[in-house]
Amino acid sequence: MASHQLRISAVDFIGEDKEIVRVAKPDILYDDLEHYHDWLATLVERVNEALQPALPGRSTKIEDPCVPEKYVLHFLASLLELTDEVVSPHSISYTCHRAVPYCVRAIRVNYRVHSLTALKNVLEVQQKVKLSPKVAFCHYEQVEDMTSYSGSTFSMKEKITRAKANATSLAYPEQIEQPLTSRIALVVSEGEGRSMREVEIIYWADLYKTTKSFKFQLRFFCPKIRATIMLFIIYYIQ
Question: Residue 229: what pLDDT?
């Protein structure tokens, strides 16, 4: 059993004064769901755009500096219905928030989830934008097929012949598809050590004094792998 699977009951965190640190508990939201779904839709769009090959890969962080507290708690409560990993935070810490609003000692609450299915189900409740955990690109253009050539059954020799004919006389009007240049995936997996990849849900609880708002962060791992170009068609037209 993986270490993160051992946490199946609530855990209390003890602060510097030897007292239990109290944080807001996940709570189901019964009203204002339309605006919550709008927020979810923008969150999914940003996660999908983070898989663009033009952006840095590996560890990626999406953040929203000001989110209503009830949205964050409902997000966690929705996850709790699908996985017991968020029955209590993974960590609670007091740390300096070195951004606006600046705070010398802020509470940072961290949850970790290792189920991509649970995360996908929660994010897609809004039914406006689908999460795309695996994508393929030809340079910077996203393509549907995850293979070098989508649906092509021609041999290598036939592909070269058709490409030459198409370039000279338009004998074959179909367009030869470009090979993939990169494959990118949102990696969430169970395991131990380096084989374990989680999605971190982080919120800063006490940055704002006049409104019930949190700073929200979603951190995940998305390696960006360059696909090997399987076919080079070189021709010379005199």
Answer: 41
Residue 94 domain-assigned (yes or no): yes
pTM equals 0.75
Closest CA to 64 of 43, 93, 86: 43
- The torsion defined by the Cα of 144, 145, 146 and 152, in degrees rounded to 10, comes to -170
pLDDT digits (tens, 9 = 90+) for 12-52: 666 666 677 778 889 999 988 999 999 999 999 999 998 88
Question: What is the distance between the alpha carbons of residues 129 and 211, in angstroms, rounded to a whole number?
Answer: 29
Kindly report whether the peptide bond that precedes residue 101 is cis, defined as omega within 30 degrees of 0.
yes
pLDDT tens, residue by residue, 148-183 = 444 455 566 666 676 666 555 555 445 545 567 788
Q: What b-and-e string marks burial along 76-96, b requiring 16 or more CB atoms within 10 Å of the CB?
A: bbbbbebbebbebbbebeeee
CA 197/CA 152 separation, integer angstroms? 35
Which residues constitute the domain of residue 54? 36-165+177-226
Number of domains composing the chain: 1
8 Å CB contact between 224 and 53: yes
Residue 170 within a domain: no
The answer to the question of residue 121 being in a domain is: yes
